[in-house]
Amino acid sequence: MNLSPLVTDLYQLTMMCAYLNSGKTGEAAFELFVRELPKNRNFLVFLGREEILKVVESLRFTPDDIDYLNSLKLFPDWFLDYLKEFEFTGTVYAFKDGELFFPYEPVVRVEAPIHQAQLLETLLMNQLHPLVLIASKAARVVAVSRGKTVVDFSLRRTHGTDAGLKVAKASYAVGFAGTSNVLAGKLYSVPVVGTVAHSFIMAFRSEKEAFRAYLETFPSHSVLIVDTYDPVRGIKRAIEVAKELGVELKGVRIDSGDLVELSKLAREILDREGFRSAKIILSGGLDEYKIDQVLSAGAPVDAFGVGTKVGTSSDAPYVDFVYKLVEVEGRPIMKTSTGKKMYPGRKQVYRDYSTWKDRLTLVTESSPGEPLLEKIVINGSPVISPLSLSRIRERFIELFSRVPAPLKNIYTQVNWLPEVSEGVLKLYKQLEEELLGG
Amino acid sequence: MNLSPLVTDLYQLTMMCAYLNSGKTGEAAFELFVRELPKNRNFLVFLGREEILKVVESLRFTPDDIDYLNSLKLFPDWFLDYLKEFEFTGTVYAFKDGELFFPYEPVVRVEAPIHQAQLLETLLMNQLHPLVLIASKAARVVAVSRGKTVVDFSLRRTHGTDAGLKVAKASYAVGFAGTSNVLAGKLYSVPVVGTVAHSFIMAFRSEKEAFRAYLETFPSHSVLIVDTYDPVRGIKRAIEVAKELGVELKGVRIDSGDLVELSKLAREILDREGFRSAKIILSGGLDEYKIDQVLSAGAPVDAFGVGTKVGTSSDAPYVDFVYKLVEVEGRPIMKTSTGKKMYPGRKQVYRDYSTWKDRLTLVTESSPGEPLLEKIVINGSPVISPLSLSRIRERFIELFSRVPAPLKNIYTQVNWLPEVSEGVLKLYKQLEEELLGG
């Protein structure tokens, strides 16, 4: 992904110009959080430290960018000159990758001169949004998969190349075993996986001829798709061809029909014919509900290939992230529109990992539990190296195994909110009175 | 966007290898279509000729790509050598940009040696999917907007940078007036627009001070957001400051509260105070339903800023595009799984623009009406220059004004299907019998 400071809303640049023009360049703090969870979600999963570092680093305007901005006949020359030299010099805090979060919990805090912190907003949100969206959806899939392998097959129906990469990354981070997306393999070292498509089978004069061509080419890697014509015949033909060629059959994929019945039948036939190690892979419109249903019905599945519904988080395709000013020049800030509650001041979140209860405090307060916001950028420079994706994944899997069952239940909604500290509440009330008074 | 042939599913590469290994490299035809429309859609809008040309051009493997593929220890050396020299040499047909389409109508046909046509699949779909998805959603917004200006404010909650660009492009193509996405302005010449955010207002000690700072910086471009505190007071303060500075007030933006009542009040106050040319811009969770409701209630709105719900097509966040093999080595192909109907053979779509009725034919049949699939790539080279985005937009607006009202009704679903020619039906029946027989 080529990030650019032009991946921004025009008003970020006009506001920046107006801040500078009016000498309003004091320190500000913005926090990124959600007021409520999307439909069907009991938690969200934070992911994106690496992207935050990239965003910070990418906030440099090229001569080309400046030419374009100049062509808008909107900005004064002094501002364009300023942009030529612009660098972000602020400090950024973020949750750890793979950490669960809940409403009102700031997962990122940016502290910088206000015009700088403002410029970060759009690109930061644009990059974190799909990661959090998909990690949160995919974690639900993992929650019901009872240790079975799940892989990402969504690339063709994601919202473009960046989305495709982020789906592969985010789903792997929460426990998927791999992706079909080859570029994600190259860029993020996500294991790449694949089977074979119906079109390959249909391209040959017969199913057996197609199986033969595939098994001859990949004698030790072949998962054959068996439902192009009749799935039961397909399984038998796959076995016949594997025997005929004397090669291993890694598995069979079933992409349509009654997945429960067909997988039982497939297992029976494969076992009977001596192909006990051949895996059964299911795909076709799967999501956490369908997977839970298939596994609850006792289907002897080894792996699921999930696509569109997870890759677009189709039941809840966005997270209502907001990036709110909480302090400027030492003065805590709050906005109180109907239905748009927020807590003022720079805050921290403490988690008690034995109960998974959180506490939202001011940064000046102390609390038991683990503080979740950590400094990752100081004066514009990274002060951490993000964990490798496989480490993030290991950590997530371990943590997730200890998350209370009600949070992981995909059918019932729980309202898991942080406890709000005395300090935050007091400040909230104080500002509320000032706003009502003013 | 850096397109790469690695933006693909692993199985496209393994199938390619198996096709080559078994000498199966005859001419094939694949068609891209949908079997059914997404929820709440009466039509889809095709967009993406430029992207198809870019995809075709981008199918070159870099030495780096080859090294990565080699590291998978999956592919034979001869295949990696082949990929080093790979170019797409096929022919591509596509609908015109901005053309409406319906179930079973191929909007793209790829004719190429089968291993090449197969490789195109994932990247082609990944690139066209968000364009079609968003153009189709945004056209519904345009359908209810009664000529009012609509602009795209969705960038922060789209699924990454590529999605953000494609949302800006697709929504502009169907009649939006602009986008907040500055990079889309630079890359696609979409007009960029913006107002000011609540955070800017809150950063100052008072609303008037903030308005002053903004109006002084942009005396002839300012749309002020007036609902940070009390919207009625906000409007009055905006007027006061504009008068005090003797500058124009381009407009006011209202982002929360009762948009109908507030816009009426705003219009009244602005007119009374002599700001008749100041526009009223509404935003905040808007989609086609909300816009229709606001306009039906007589709100005196000039423009709408729409964000997340359109930028993610939130009520239907994916289009179930399929790319199906329809012919190989001159032999028509069909697959008949339950619920997965398709028509075999290379096809054309003819449209009667006086009735908007379509006819699906074999390419060998003739028909009255305009043929919609046109050759855009021959032997791997573009044979057209895509229309400029502004021309696509003009053409769409003109065509869309003539689309029958039931199709544009956002509340009721119509089932608009092409008539299927004798030739297609005959071939369908013939292949059905063969499949049942086999």
From TrEMBL, chains A, B:
The keyword Phosphoprotein applies. Pathway: Cofactor biosynthesis; NAD(+) biosynthesis; nicotinate D-ribonucleotide from nicotinate: step 1/1. It catalyses: 5-phospho-alpha-D-ribose 1-diphosphate + nicotinate + ATP + H2O = nicotinate beta-D-ribonucleotide + ADP + phosphate + diphosphate. Residues 150-340 form the Nicotinate/nicotinamide phosphoribosyltransferase domain. Gene3D superfamilies: Aldolase class I, nicotinate phosphoribosyltransferase. Its EC number is 6.3.4.21. GO terms for molecular function: nicotinamide phosphoribosyltransferase activity; nicotinate phosphoribosyltransferase activity. One of its GO terms (cellular component) is cytosol. Keywords: Glycosyltransferase, Ligase, Phosphoprotein, Pyridine nucleotide biosynthesis, Transferase. Pfam families: NAPRTase, NAPRTase_N. Transiently phosphorylated on a His residue during the reaction cycle. Phosphorylation strongly increases the affinity for substrates and increases the rate of nicotinate D-ribonucleotide production. Dephosphorylation regenerates the low-affinity form of the enzyme, leading to product release. GO terms for biological process: NAD+ biosynthetic process via the salvage pathway. Residues 6-127 form the Nicotinate phosphoribosyltransferase N-terminal domain. InterPro entries: Aldolase_TIM, N/Namide_PRibTrfase, NAPRTase_N, Nic_PRibTrfase-Fam, Nic_PRibTrfase_pncB, Nicotinate_pribotase-like_C. Catalyzes the first step in the biosynthesis of NAD from nicotinic acid, the ATP-dependent synthesis of beta-nicotinate D-ribonucleotide from nicotinate and 5-phospho-D-ribose 1-phosphate. NCBIfam families: NAPRTase_put, PRK09243.1-3, PRK12484.1. Belongs to the NAPRTase family. This is Nicotinate phosphoribosyltransferase. It comes from Thermovibrio ammonificans (strain DSM 15698 / JCM 12110 / HB-1). The lineage of its organism: Bacteria, Pseudomonadati, Aquificota, Aquificia, Desulfurobacteriales.
